[in-house]
Amino acid sequence: MKDLNNKVAVVTGAGSGIGRSLAKALAARGCRLAISDVNETGLAETAAELKDADVRSYRLDVSDREAVYAHADEVVRDFGQVNLVINNAGVALSASVREMTDEDFKWIMDIDFWGVAHGSRAFLPHLIASGDGHVVNISSVFGLIGVPKQSAYNAAKFAVRGFTESLRQEMKLEGQPVSVSCVHPGGIRTNIANSARMGKSENGAAQRKGFEKLAMTTPDKAAETIVKGILRDESRILVGPDAWGIDAINRLLGSAYQPLVERFSRKNLYI
């Protein structure tokens, strides 16, 4: 996909953050947009910023498999085809393995992993039919390294990475006209930390403040990086200098990165 003009792009989680910025970046390149979110107020705000674009909004809970498959069919009816799907919707959870509830564990996996899997599988036949498709799944730097109190988020984001990398290989081996990219953002200045669920002993205010200090990249900059990665057909798109640094440490040290994370966590998370 060398040109995005007049391509039909689907963006989940478009009501705020990276999703909203992606919608704006794609619209600026001439995309026709199907944007969705469970937050209808935020989604309406995004749509208002795209008033000059060909855009339709849909309320969508990505954890609902039947709703996602119905959404794929609806988008094709509305636009005639789909070329690009960005499975961006996500949530956060900070809790130790001991304290994490089954409900919270299921909540984050249903959205952060199953939402991506549902979106990829529901739209894949339509992307193949377009003759020029691309799947973009949002993982995280926490899909590259494990971090204390992020076991559930790690589990979801590692799963997204494995699923996406496998899908890319399948599309190539089958000779299908669909590219696949996995995105690993570092700290992005969005509301995900403010809306995160916390374990009962977590100092939520302190953790959110710490995240704000570490968030190095704006959503608009993240979106530009992702769009450029799509146009270059990159298999792995790293977003932000911290993402590049974490990826390098992981490649250089392998599992030996863990003592570094432990030292950082002792100072910043166990407070």
TrEMBL record:
Family: Belongs to the short-chain dehydrogenases/reductases (SDR) family.
InterPro entries the record matches: KR_dom, NAD(P)-bd_dom_sf, Sc_DH/Rdtase_CS, SDR_fam
Top-level taxonomic group: Bacteria
Keywords: Oxidoreductase
Xref: Pfam families: adh_short
Name listed for the protein in its UniProt record: Short-chain dehydrogenase
Ranges of residues in domain Ketoreductase: 7-191
GO MF annotations, alphabetized: oxidoreductase activity, acting on the CH-OH group of donors, NAD or NADP as acceptor
Species annotation: Marinobacter pelagius
Keyword Oxidoreductase: yes
